[in-house]
Amino acid sequence: MKQLGFQIEHCRSNCPKSARQWNALLETLTTNLSNLNINEALETKFNPVLHHHLPKICLAGCPNGCSHPDIKDFSISGYVTPLITEVPCSGCDACVRYCLEKAITLDPMKIIIDNARCLSCGNCTSVCPTGTLARGESGWNLRIGGRVGRHPRFATFAGQVLTDKEVVAWIYETILDYLNNGQPQERLTHYIERKNSVLESRTSCSLVNPLT
Q1: Would you list the DSSP string of 44-94?
Q2: Torsions phi, psi of 99, nearest 5?
Q3: How far, in Å, CA of 201 to CA of 167, rounded?
C-alpha cells in the first residue's frame, strides 16, 4: 500500500456540537495533498521516514478540541459567530446556562455577548428556543506548529478563513514550501519555527533601521 506521507485526524462525524462540518474538507484535503507525493519527498530528508516525520493535520468541528488539534502541525477548528436577531428574547436564560465561557448576560431581557470571552462554538445558538440567537458567520480557525515530544508546544493562531478552499490552499502551500526549502533531517514543525524566527528577526531589524 502506498504511503501518503501525511496524517489527518478528525473528531467524530455529525457531532451535534459541530460549528462546521469537516467531511467535505477531509476529502478535498486528502486528494490535494496526495498529489504532492509527500512521502517520496520526505525520503530525501529522512532515512527511514518515521511516524514523527509525517506532517500531521487535525480537523475539528468546533473549538472544544476533542481530537487534540493544537498539538498537530496544522490545527483546523470550526467556528460559528452568534448573531443577535430582532426576535424578542423570552428571558429563559438557556444561553447563559449553556455558555461554558460565561460570555453571555441578560440585561434584563436583552442578550449581551462579551466578544472577548466568546469562542464562537455555537452552543448558545443551538439551545435558544426563540431564535433570538442565530448562527452568524461560520468558518475555520487556523493554527500551526503544535507538537508533542521532547519539546512540546501548542499550535499558534494563524488566522481565520471562511471556505474549505482557503484551508486547503494554506496547508498545501505550507507543506510545499517545507518540502522545497526544509533542511535534511528537519521536521515540519522545526522548519516553521526557523522560518518564523527569520521573519521576526527581519521585522525587528527593519524597525530599528528602516533603511536596511
Answers
A1: TT-SS--GGGS-EEEEESSTT-TT-GGGSSEEEEEEEEEEE-SSPP----H
A2: -80, 110
A3: 27
**Cis omega (within 30 of 0) on the bond before 48?**
yes
pLDDT tens for each residue of 87-121: 999 999 999 999 999 999 998 878 999 999 999 99
Which helix (H) or strand (E) segment holds residue 141: the answer is strand 133-144
Q: Residue 145: left (phi > 0), alpha (psi -120 to 50), or beta?
A: left
Length of the chain: 212
Q: What does R_g of the chain's alpha carbons equal in angstroms?
A: 21
What is the distance between the alpha carbons of residues 15 and 145, in angstroms, rounded to a whole number?
26
- Domains of the chain, residue spans: 7-79+136-206
**What is the Cβ-side half-sphere exposure of residue 25, based on CA atoms within 13 angstroms?**
30
**Measured distance CA(109)–CA(106) in Å, rounded:** 6
Return the CATH class of domain 7-79+136-206: alpha beta
Q: Compute CA distances 2 → 5, 16, 51, 73, 168, whole Å.
A: 9, 35, 15, 22, 22
pLDDT digits (tens, 9 = 90+) for 146-181: 998 888 889 999 999 999 999 999 999 999 999 999
- Chain mean position to CA 93: 31
